[in-house]
Amino acid sequence: MAARAGVDHAKVVQMAAKLADSTHTQREEPFMTLSTPKVTKTRRRLPLSIIITAALWVLMTLAIFPLSQGTLPFQLKLFDDKGTPFLGRILTFEGSLLLALAIMGLAYLVTLRRPVPDMAARAPAVAVARAETLGMVGYAIVAQIAGVFLGHAVSGYAISLHMPGTLYGLSGPYTPQAAIIWAIYNFVVYAVLPFAYFRWRGYSLEQLSLRSNNLRADIVLILIVLVVEATVELLSISTVIFSLSGRQLLLGVSLTFVLNFFGTVLPIMIFIYCILLPRYLKLTNSVALTIILGGLTYAVLHVGDSWTNYSSLTNGLLSVIIVLIQYFGPGMVKSVLTLRTGNAWVHVWAYHAIAPHVLIDTPTVVEIFHIH
Q1: Angle between helices 359-368 and 176-186 (to 10 degrees)
Q2: Given this model, what pLDDT does residue 38 score?
Q3: Is 166 within the bounds of a domain?
Q4: Could you say which residues of the chain have pLDDT below 70?
Q5: Structural domain that includes position 151
Q6: Residue closest to 300 by CA, chosen among 308, 364, 183
Q7: Is CB count within 10 Å lower at the N or C end of the chain?
Q8: How far apart are CA 237 and CA 239, in angstroms?
Q9: CA separation (Å) from 273 to 140, 180, 266, 281, 356?
């Protein structure tokens, strides 16, 4: 009996050892069991909005060639003075998007460890956000049309969100009085009235993205982007500002800053990045689409720039295409800087007021105001 008990005991020990070994194997290789589902890695796909935008960009670029027949119907002093050929001009326009994408990547890199603010929470409920957005779009259409009539009444150019001569230089006469009217109109129509209306509706400065939640981080981002953007602009666009006299620099820089700050910088900031951007995010629930819409809105508000030509259907189509290609990228950069920081002032100092306007446009303002 004792021997039999010993044999039984040995069998029990062997069975226990096999069971433990089996359990250990299952823990090491869970994918071999029938009860554990097979884990597969899924690839992250590009948002549909990015794919559609890229496709439209390619189509617009290709459309330039049959529409233009090798000649653009625009007087662009910057290119004319340099004798830039047709393809060189197209590559310059296209390059603005590549530079914008690089700046966007830089902004993401600098803010990688920074908590991203909930911009959608700054917008009202979806129904209210939709009504406010549509109201702003309608208001912008009326403002643009009124700017066309007022601009041609005081000068030969429509009032757009860029003063005539911006970036490319003046190709015709423009008076100091017209420049001042341009700045006042844009400041009142696109900044003062919308800001006053939304403050009256009860929106706080934080809801309008006008407060910083991390001033030190904002300053670091501003300085990095400003240095990179200013360097690229001086190397690729113009260094004429360095040929000005001391008096021209002192008066020209000050006047250029003030005119553009009130005529385009504040209006763009308030209208698009303080008011519309959080509502785009609320309505779309997509950061990618919000960035795209911010870029598109910025471009559309410049369809009346002084160099555009709407004398025919073909010229009009080319004008719209080049405006979109030229300004869509910078508009997206401003969207990214605002979304990543929650502070609309960041793009003002990093990517608008100083570079490009002071750096590139000071010689044009010196010319307009006859500063010697």
Answers
A1: 130
A2: 54
A3: yes
A4: 1-43
A5: 101-368
A6: 308
A7: N
A8: 7
A9: 14, 24, 10, 11, 18
